[in-house]
Design brief:
- The complex is a heterodimer of chains A (221) and B (245).
- Chain A is 82% helix and 0% strand.
- Chain A is mostly helical and 221 residues long.
- The model of chain A has no long low-confidence stretch (mean pLDDT 92).
- Chain B is mainly α and 245 residues long.
- Chain B folds into 2 domains: 8-130, no CATH class; 150-244, no CATH class.
- Chain B contains 9 helices and no strands.
- Chain B has helices at 8-38, 43-75, 78-85, 90-103, 116-128, 132-154, 156-178, 194-216, 219-244.
- In chain B, helix 1 (8-38) runs parallel beside helix 3 (78-85).
- The interface between A and B is large, with 157 and 155 residues.
Chain lengths: 221, 245
């Protein structure tokens, strides 16, 4: 008799199939273009381009995977690591949704809420990009208008102001030290900027986990 | 066949991949909605969750469209459309494209049309350099989730603190980032405090939403508080930039 899979097991099975299938499709994309236009990649350019780009992003990718999975849940992770824009869209969306629904990230309800929020966010993003591509000619002067540029340049501060106040106020004992430390680091270390904030996320997470563990063991929480 | 970066065939290939990604999202959405129903999670609350997540996504998604426009000047529309619909971001794709074009003897941003060989090389570098998450998640997600469940069985309070600490750690990095240019104030350039003011506006709107919910009992306000604080913060950037930029 066929064994009935639990919801979570089926999420992992489907997630693996989808991730690996999409990975193969993504790899076939440049291969197909090369075949259609009979244009081989520049071997030296490819190697040197990869050496200049891949090591840092592979390292970041490995650390991000272990950092984000516990926060995104299984379904959310399978979707987010394919559709991207995790820290600036998918994760805040999932956190906001779990907050709104009053569910814990490590419960099945949290898993479902996170998956729904990230799936909806992915669908809306994909549809908006498609509309943007179709309407690129009339939209370009509107969206690139100088008056709107500051608004789109400040998405991250606008995003983490609202989200931060909820989590920092609720967990202020844990939050004070990492928030203060990160502020000091970003103010005084010139290398820390928009390009390196992704690298600092795992650093912030690890430091906060250590701090929370120490406070918990000393009955301070 | 003569190559150019906006060739219909490239749009077709991009479209097939984007459609597959869209189907994946719909697949997981339908599965999660069915499970929510089985668990008795209220339908109207799930509907509000969907509306709230969709509303929240609009502004960041429009920013992604602007990124497509930015990259399209050198790469055409089809490749940035694909890359920013999958694992990419403007900063990553720009770095990957700059490195790949430079190593093939060109200069990204020069406006000189890419050859087919350069285009294929750029697409390969972009794809291969950010593949880690897509194959690593299927390899480790199940084990990590089991670990989280075991942790909760052993010590529920620590498990909850663990998740809260992860969220706080992530948020702390972005709050720190908001302050990265404030030191320019010392040189008489006040533009560095614009992100701080924007974050403050967003935080104040969130606090006021909470106060409004408590004072009036209008729970629907809390469902839209995050998207509203995001839009209010972004809108405030316009006058702040006029003033200090």
């Amino acid at each position: 008799m066929k064994k009935q899979l639990s919801y979570m097991d089926s999420v992992h099975r489907d997630g693996r199939i989808w991730s690996l299938s999409l990975m193969v499709m993504m790899l076939l994309y440049p291969v197909a273009i090369a075949l259609v236009f009979q244009a081989a990649p520049d071997g030296r350019g490819l190697l040197m381009g990869l050496l200049a780009t891949a090591p840092m992003y592979w390292a970041v990718g490995i650390v991000e995977t272990f950092t984000y999975i516990p926060m995104l849940g299984a379904g959310g992770s399978y979707l987010s690591f394919v559709t991207g824009n995790i820290s600036n869209l998918k994760l805040p969306c999932a956190i906001g949704a779990m907050e709104q629904m009053g569910v814990k990230a490590n419960s099945e309800e949290g898993e479902i809420v996170s998956t729904i929020a990230i799936a909806v966010s992915s669908i809306v993003t994909t549809v908006i990009i498609i509309l943007g591509v179709i309407l690129i000619v009339p939209l370009t002067p509107v969206l690139n208008a100088p008056v709107l540029a500051p608004a789109f340049a400040q998405i991250l501060p606008a995003l983490f102001g609202g989200l931060g106040v909820v989590f920092v106020s609720r967990n202020w004992k844990i939050a004070i030290a990492p928030v203060a430390l990160m502020m000091i680091l970003f103010i005084f270390v010139p290398a820390l900027n928009e390009g390196t904030v992704g690298i600092m996320v795992p650093v912030g997470v690890i430091l906060t986990l250590i701090e929370a563990r120490v406070m918990y063991k000393k009955n301070l929480l | 066949m003569e190559f150019h970066v906006n060739h219909p065939i490239i749009f077709l290939f991009s479209g097939i991949l984007v459609a597959a990604v869209l189907v994946q999202s719909v697949w997981f959405l339908v599965r999660a909605l069915r499970r929510a129903k089985e668990l008795g999670m209220a339908g109207d609350r799930i509907k509000k969750l969907i509306i709230s997540a969709a509303t929240f996504t609009v502004a960041p998604a429009v920013a992604i469209v602007i990124s497509v426009m930015t990259l399209s000047k050198d790469l055409g529309v089809a490749l940035p459309w694909l890359r920013l619909s999958v694992v990419g971001s403007l900063s990553y794709e720009t770095i990957a494209a700059t490195n790949a074009v430079r190593e093939t003897g060109g200069s990204f941003g020069s406006g000189i049309p890419l050859t087919a060989s350069q285009f294929v090389t750029v697409a390969l570098v972009m794809t291969l350099s950010i593949m880690v998450g897509i194959w690593l998640v299927p390899s480790v997600a199940k084990k990590m989730q089991k670990g989280m469940i075991n942790m909760e069985k052993r010590d529920k309070k620590w498990s909850e603190l663990f998740t809260a600490a992860m969220f706080i750690g992530m948020i702390s990095a972005f709050v720190g980032f908001v302050f990265c240019n404030v030191s320019t104030v010392a040189t008489g350039d006040f533009s560095g405090i614009i992100p701080v003011l924007v974050m403050a506006v967003s935080a104040v709107v969130m606090v006021l939403s909470g106060v409004l919910v408590k004072a009036t009992g209008w729970r629907w306000v809390s469902e839209y508080a995050l998207p509203v604080s995001l839009i209010a913060g972004m809108a405030s950037a316009i006058p702040f930039t006029m003033w200090l930029g």
